[in-house]
Amino acid sequence: MKPIAKSSKLANVGYDIRGPVLDKAREMEEEGHKIIKLNIGNVAAFGLEPPDEIVQDMIRNLPHAAGYTDSKGLFAPRKAVVHYCQEKKISGVTVDDVYLGNGASELIAMSMNALLDAGDEVLIPSPDYPLYTAVVALSGGTPVHYRCDEGSGWLPDLADMKAKVSPNTKAIVLINPNNPTGALYPVEVLEGIVEIARQHQLIVFADEIYDKTLYDGVEHTSIASLADDVLFLTFNGLSKNYRSCGYRAGWMVVSGDKRHARDYIEGLNMLASMRLCANTPGQLAIQTALGGYQSIKDLVAPGGRLARQRDLAYSLLTQIPGVSVVKPTAALYMFPRLDPKVYPIEDDQQFAYELLAEEKVLIVQGTGFNWPTPDHFRLVFLPNTDDLTEAVGRIARFLDHYRKRHS
């Protein structure tokens, strides 16, 4: 039989958060091994449940959720998103500017599919959430990575970003708060990005899925609130702030200068219609979530569960020789650096395989986030303190053996 090959469009597409190392972990689980999974921000898997009022509201409405909705989504949750934009000081947003999706991920893919032609370039942070690099490539575009500077707390290097703008550049992707680094960007950095977009007539894609998962009293600013003469697409959803990953309830907001984007918006509407609609039960959770008690504040406050786990993970990791970490001020992740003089890693995916095999701990290698050198990895600090202490203890033991093997 002639082999059936995957599409050549997938040649440069990767998603190592659920990649080959996870496949190996599943094989090990089938053999009876218990794996500590620090690879994905699947909050429910760690006992962080959605607010009860969301669950109850979905249960009550489920008997009436069997039909298609408007292709952009139900009116009430879209109106709730408009009110949320007002709270975030994003001006000029109407219900017609809001698209509901099966998680923000679907809408991110939709936004790139509607925009890009072969050869078009999109500026994406390095490290990034790898979905962006993947969907740009899959949409026929070219991902161009701008540098985020670990020495400045993982803030975007605006000079590097500006230097990488070319005549083919169509957009800038901004992930704020950032995954995988946990960085939160100050207003002056956001204003600098707006100015680059303004000068070169670029769209800004702003991923703000962690905008309530903030520590140490910091505040999040939506970049779309800073200008009305640039086109912004802002992505958010219930997955993280409301611990509802499986509900696949996300939204996209088009704001700013829409006058010259009518054809692009027509493309977005076409793609929204082609998928018929987002899942209705997930849509029904949005209004209740945004209007209800914001329990995420209890989790991230000093002494709250997420804040305690962040502090513990940071303390334990920074005690390991040759490991340094920029302490995250947001999100659910850390992106530790392994000193290459202490850990001469040539292939960080192989490094992740070895950690999995020896200590039954699953992490994601740094190059899986389009970081150029094999000297970082990402872990989630979602396990409770006992499990987190055990997991980082195993990582420390593995690194101790690694140092001795390569000394």
- Low-pLDDT regions: none
Global geometry: globular
Radius of gyration: 21 Å
- Please state the structural category: alpha/beta
Task: Return the string of H and E elements.
Answer: HEHHEHEHEEHEHEEEHHHHEEEHEEEH
Please explain how this structure is put together:
This protein is of the alpha/beta class. It has helices at residues 20-30, 52-61, 75-87, 103-115, 131-138, 158-163, 187-200, 262-274, 280-291, 296-300, 305-318, 348-359, 385-406, and strands spanning 36-37, 98-102, 121-126, 142-149, 155-156, 169-175, 203-207, 231-237, 249-256, 323-324, 333-334, 337-338, 361-362, 364-365, 377-380. Strands 2-9-8-7-6-3-4-5 form an 8-stranded mixed sheet. Helix 2 (52-61) crosses helix 9 (280-291). The longest helix is centred in the last third of the chain and has 22 residues, at 385-406.
Identify the notable features of this structure and list them briefly.
single chain, 407 residues, alpha/beta, eight-stranded mixed sheet, three-stranded antiparallel sheet, 13 helices, 38% helix, 16% strand
Secondary structure elements and pairings:
Layout: H1 20-30, E1 36-37, H2 52-61, H3 75-87, E2 98-102, H4 103-115, E3 121-126, H5 131-138, E4 142-149, E5 155-156, H6 158-163, E6 169-175, H7 187-200, E7 203-207, E8 231-237, E9 249-256, H8 262-274, H9 280-291, H10 296-300, H11 305-318, E10 323-324, E11 333-334, E12 337-338, H12 348-359, E13 361-362, E14 364-365, E15 377-380, H13 385-406
Parallel strand pairs: 1-13, 3-4, 3-6, 6-7, 7-8
Antiparallel strand pairs: 2-9, 4-5, 8-9, 10-12, 11-15, 14-15
